[in-house]
Write a structure and sequence with these properties.
181 residues; mainly beta; Elongation Factor Tu (Ef-tu), domain 3; conserved putative lor/sdh protein from methanococcus maripaludis s2 fold; 5-stranded antiparallel beta sheet; 10 strands
């Protein structure tokens, strides 16, 4: 009686289910709204965890990505390999964001900015991208809903606001000089 076992065959599989890692498949369109630390609620039992990583590899079949969450409590209620539903808290669920045209945003030294109209002309405002759409970004920053942003002529505004040699000159003078080159 018994069975012959070769060296490469496992007799037992031992697993540690605390913490339990959950792979969650999400649409690419919301990936910009998911960051590490976001809350995840698993199934009808309301088992909660936190996002620990987001894959940057897109699944070719449906253009989705994988988000990994870690569950540290009530893991005995879940079975490794089990399919469950999950809700992932999105950044936009708890942050104030503003929808701006793509052309209003520019990058400098790895940071993102917009130019907000002010009494003196324009003010440089740093923004963080929460998510993106085809023609817009959703950003978080020190903006308010009544602010007006530069959308065209960003290069001229950039020169006018940031270059020291433009101080004291009007935007029209700078544009005229710029056009002459």
């Amino acid at each position: 009686m018994g069975e012959s076992v070769t060296q490469d065959k496992a007799l037992y599989t031992i697993g540690n289910t605390t913490p339990l890692w959950i792979k969650i498949h999400v649409p690419i369109s919301i990936i910009g709204s998911i960051t590490n630390g976001n809350t995840v609620v698993i199934g009808a039992n309301n088992i909660t965890g936190k996002v620990i990583s987001t894959s940057r590899m897109i699944h070719t079949a449906d253009q989705g990505v994988t988000v990994m969450a870690e569950i540290n409590q009530r893991t005995q209620e879940l079975i490794p390999g089990q399919l469950v539903s999950a809700k992932v808290e999105l950044i936009s669920d708890h942050l104030q964001g503003y929808k701006i045209p793509r052309q209003a945003l520019f990058s400098e030294a790895g940071k993102k900015y917009v130019f907000k109209q002010s009494a003196q002309g324009f003010t440089l405002v740093e923004v963080s991208i929460i998510s993106q759409e085809q023609e817009h970004y959703i950003v978080q920053s020190a903006l308010n809903s009544t602010d007006k942003l530069a959308v065209t002529g960003i290069a001229i505004v950039f020169i006018y606001v940031l270059l020291p040699e433009t101080k004291g000159r009007t935007l029209e003078e700078i544009e005229k000089d710029w056009s002459a080159h």
